[in-house]
């Protein structure tokens, strides 16, 4: 069974993602973390196939968390999909330049999100769509 780690501090968004995975990606186990620090710990322990990361996290933000994941031999090859309400072209460019595998803006479009997750889990690597 494939595993996806979702790092999100908003409990409503967390519940929505849980529902979305249960309905659209039932064969994927969803792991959850509320902070970047907790996400790093879970990623090191569980080695998920994909990490979905909110950018605007309290404490260590999504960019800082990604940087730590990239520096670790155990997690450096795990694709990380950014998900954020920040939707300016500069936000998309920064995410791409930083090394995120893709960028989804909130509110998410369920079909696009589901297809993106499926592609990344199938080994598509970096995606260009947002």
Could you please describe the fold and organization of this structure?
By secondary structure, the chain is α/β, with parallel strands linked by helices. It has a single domain (2-121), classed as Response regulator (Rossmann fold). It contains 5 helices and 5 strands. Strands 2-1-3-4-5 form a 5-stranded parallel β-sheet, sandwiched between helices. Helix 1 links the parallel strand 1 (2-7) and strand 2 (28-33). One of its GO terms (biological process) is phosphorelay signal transduction system. This is Response regulatory domain-containing protein. Pfam families: Response_reg.
User: What radius of gyration results from the CA coordinates?
Assistant: 13 Å
- What structural class do the secondary elements suggest? alpha/beta
Q: What is the overall pLDDT average?
A: 91
CATH class: Alpha Beta
Strand content: 15-25%
The tally of helices reads: 5
Fourth CATH level, the homologous superfamily: Response regulator
- What name does the CATH topology carry? Rossmann fold
- End-to-end distance, in Å? 26 Å
CATH architecture type: 3-Layer(aba) Sandwich
* Number of E-type strands: 5
Please give the oligomerization state of what you see: single chain
SSE string, helices as H and strands as E: EHEHEHEHEH
Strand order, main sheet: write it out. 2-1-3-4-5
Protein name: Response regulatory domain-containing protein
Domain Response regulatory: 3-121
Keywords: Phosphoprotein
Modified residues (4-aspartylphosphate): 54
Helices and strands in order:
Blueprint: E1 2-7, H1 11-24, E2 28-33, H2 36-46, E3 50-54, H3 62-71, E4 80-84, H4 89-98, E5 102-105, H5 110-121
Parallel strand pairs: 1-2, 1-3, 3-4, 4-5
């Amino acid at each position: 069974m494939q595993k996806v780690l979702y790092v999100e501090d908003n409990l409503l968004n967390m519940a929505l993602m849980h529902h979305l995975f249960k309905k659209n990606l039932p064969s994927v186990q969803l792991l959850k973390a509320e902070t970047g620090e907790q996400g790093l710990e879970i990623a090191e322990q569980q080695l998920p196939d994909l990490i979905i990361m909110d950018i605007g996290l309290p404490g260590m933000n999504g960019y800082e968390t990604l940087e730590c994941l990239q520096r670790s031999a155990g997690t450096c090859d795990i694709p990380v999909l950014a998900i954020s309400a920040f939707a300016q072209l500069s936000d998309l460019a920064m995410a791409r330049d930083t090394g995120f595998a893709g960028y989804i803006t909130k509110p998410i479009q369920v079909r696009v999100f589901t297809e993106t997750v499926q592609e990344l889990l199938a080994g598509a690597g970096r995606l260009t769509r947002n």
